Amino acid sequence: MKKALFLAMLFALATNQSYTFAFPNLFGDKINKINENIPYKVKDPNLSELGRLAIGIGEKEMPGLMATRKKYGPYKPLANQKVTGSLHMTVETAVLIETLVELGADVRWASCNIFSTQDHAAAAIAKTGVPVYAWKGETLEEYWWCTLQALTFPDDSGPNLIVDDGGDATMLIHKGYELEEFAANNGYVPTIATDNKEEIVVEKLLRNILEKDAQHWHKVVGELIGASEETTTGVHRLLQREQAGTLLFAAYNVNDSVTKSKFDNVYGCRESLADGIKRATDVMIAGKTVVVCGYGEVGKGCAQSMRGYGARVLITEVDPICALQAAMEGFEVVTVEQALEEANIFVTATGNCDIITHEHMLNMLDQAIVCNIGHFDNEIQVEALNQNPNVTKETIKPQVDRYTFADGRQIFVLAEGRLVNLGCATGHPSFVMSNSFTNQVLAQIALAKEVPPVGVYMLPKILDEEVARLHLDHVGVTLTELSDKQADYIGIKKEGPYKAEHYRY
Ligand SMILES: NC(=O)c1ccc[n+]([C@@H]2O[C@H](COP(=O)([O-])OP(=O)(O)OC[C@H]3O[C@@H](n4cnc5c(N)ncnc54)[C@H](O)[C@@H]3O)[C@@H](O)[C@H]2O)c1
Q1: Pairwise CA distance, residues 370 & 163, whole Å
Q2: CB 443: neighbour CB atoms within 10 A?
Q3: Is the CB of 372 under 6 A from ligand 1?
Q4: Distance 9 CA to ligand 1 centre (A)
Q5: CA of 70: how far to CAs of 64, 348, 392, 476, in Å?
Q6: 100 CA distance to ligand 1 centroid (A)?
Q7: Which of 265, 273, 435 to mutate to test the pocket of ligand 1 (most atoms within 8 A of CB)?
Q8: What is the pLDDT of residues 421-469, one digit of tens each?
Q9: The pTM is what?
Q10: What is the C-alpha to C-alpha distance for residues 464 and 254, in angstroms, rounded to an integer?
Q11: Model confidence over 357-408: pLDDT tens digits?
């Protein structure tokens, strides 16, 4: 690093200023070094006090995480573990980060979405000395640079443990490793064969890293124990790799803990979907027709939410079981094509691609609102709309775009098709995230303790029940205790687990 730049950074640190000066080539096609040795990069370090206030409120609503600190903090089960997080840098995540630190971990963090960072939370974490690389409104180049910085410790080594959400950190390591293998075996680097904007950014970054160190990702994998994965889509990616035999390290599937997917995905989305739509548009939901695409966990929460506001809710599904569930709840199950003539709001919640196509959007009602709450932005073909020369786009405010068609009809697309609850609002409330993140911490402890072989694992049911138990007091629950006779009669232990593995809740 140039001396003047280094001195400027020291000055900024000493005076608690933002790194707003330009870094040569920081996020361009060429990175300077794999680890730029920048202590943090956030929007504005001066927001840290606001962030600290919000974190304090979050702690009160996150009893699971606070109890985990109390129980495991004294034993430091994550001592000597380098932990990288790639997960929305929100207030709740700040409470998670500080829990991991309290358990002894050396933590670095990036967000897992370009729009999901709460800048005051990121600033508060940066102030504690945890290297965090995240701000709301990153470009794709910045996003992947941030992920790389979070994955690279000061001596250029990688983490021992990863907290992943959607699998981007896991994917960067796997793709980097595979590129190194290819280059070593073939003596050349393949040309980039995708026209997907984001994939091109990743491929360029990996080629840059390869130039600097042709064994970088092999060394990272060598030291890595494993990852704990937060969300449905990230778990899909892990299982696909496991089935293909290309998974390189162990991973815990946190999403399918009951206290995660049956709570965060359902009740979290039930509140944060409406929050996102309302903050973005202020639109009245009552009386409108809303289409929810996908009636899985997230879709169920979204449909309940919209019905609660007084909307008429239509569902689209490919799975006959979920379609039948929707029908039994009184929702009409249709196709997107059938819904086009009557729907005012479209919400994708499938974790699948091309759910709302370019063609669909061109045929929507005037003033229709289109948004996605699934993990990735490929559920809606926004890029095709952007490329259409007969459509004009205006940005009403950040993360709210209005498209006008040749005949004058207009539609709104929220958060550029990225998850609306984190792009246009602040994600789920703290209490539900306490359930999810307590599972994350338990998975991190399990990885550090067991160092399991390559594979995808679940936390045992007894820990799932423990996570729920930690949240009961907060909502005034009085649990009934089994008598010895009752426990004997149904053939379980009084202290649980209370259900067989196949029970679906
Ligand atoms: N935004 C958030 O806060 C948040 C929270 C949790 C999960 N997620 C993400 O939301 C997405 C959904 O998660 P989930 O837990 O509900 O998954 P899920 O598997 O339970 O549900 C997805 C549903 O979509 C259906 N589906 C698939 N293709 C379809 C198509 N072409 N048309 C209609 N339906 C289709 C599936 O049959 C399934 O029932 C994932 O990407 C997940 O990672 C987001």
Answers
A1: 30
A2: 26
A3: no
A4: 43
A5: 10, 39, 55, 21
A6: 29
A7: 265
A8: 999 999 999 999 999 999 999 999 999 999 999 999 999 999 999 999 9
A9: 0.95
A10: 10
A11: 999 999 999 999 999 999 999 999 999 999 999 999 999 999 999 999 999 9
